[in-house]
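Async update (no meeting this week)

Hi team, since we skipped the sync, here's where things stand on the single-chain job. The sequence we agreed to prioritize is pasted below, unchanged from the tracker. I ran it this morning and attached the output directly underneath so nobody has to dig for it. Comments welcome in thread, and please keep replies under the output.
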Amino acid sequence: MLEFGGATTRNENEARDTARAVKRGLLGKCPNCGEGKLFRAFLKPVDACAACGEEMFHHRADDFPPYLAIFVVGHIVVAGFMATDTWLVLENWQHLMIWIPVTVILTLLLLPPLKGGVIGLQWALRMHGFGGESEEPILAEPAYEDAR
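Output:
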């Protein structure tokens, strides 16, 4: 599998199992060791794993976990609404009383595991600092000479 980043400082040649890292992330565990907790708050990852010391502060999950949550919850809610509407006659307010809470609850339940899975995927692919090299742009020295 393609690995982003570059040469690592430790375990340089060690392949990272993507499926295992994503599974550990989905379970809220460190993608490296599977022992330490990945989150210290609802969606706030730890700075480093308490068990193995793997740094997590530089991950870049950004908008991908909410996008995945919208995709999954949208399919479940629309399918549920359509199935319910075919065999049960409900008023619009009754549908709203059912599907708005279902949507909110499912979204809140799915966000932490999906964010953990994305962090695990980034770790496995050595993306966004997990490869041992900084992704900050290197600034060149000024091209002008000192005019005296």
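Quick observations from my side:
Residues 5 and 131 are 5 Å apart (CA to CA).
The chain is about 45% helix and 0% strand.
Reply here if anything looks off.
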